[in-house]
Amino acid sequence: MNVFDIIGPVMIGPSSSHTAGAVRLGRVANKLIDGRKLKKVEITLSGSFAQTYKGHGTDRALLAGIMGYHSYSPEIRDALHIASERGIVYEFIKEDIKGAHANTARIHYFLEDGGEGVMQGASVGGGNILVNMIDGMSVEFNGENNTILVMHRDKPGVIAAVTQLMHWEYADLNISNFHLSRRNKGGDAIMTIEIDGQPPENLIPAIRNIQHVSNAILIRRI
Amino acid sequence: MLKYESISELVREAEKRQVTISELVLKDQAEAMEKTELEVYEKMEMDFQVMVSSVQVGQRPEQKSMSGLTGGEGYKMKAYAEKTGGGLCGPFLSRAISRALSVAGCNASMGRIVAAPTAGSCGILPGCLVSLWEDQGFDQKAIVMSMFTAGAIGMVIASRASIAGAQGGCQAECGSAAAMAAAALVELMGGTPSQCADACAIAIANQLGLVCDPVAGLVEIPCIKRNVSGLVIAFSSADLALAGIEAKIPADECLDAMRSVGDALPNTLKETAKGGLADTPTGLRLQKQVFGERQDT
Question: Do the Cβ atoms of B46 and A10 come within 8 Å?
Answer without folding.
Answer: yes
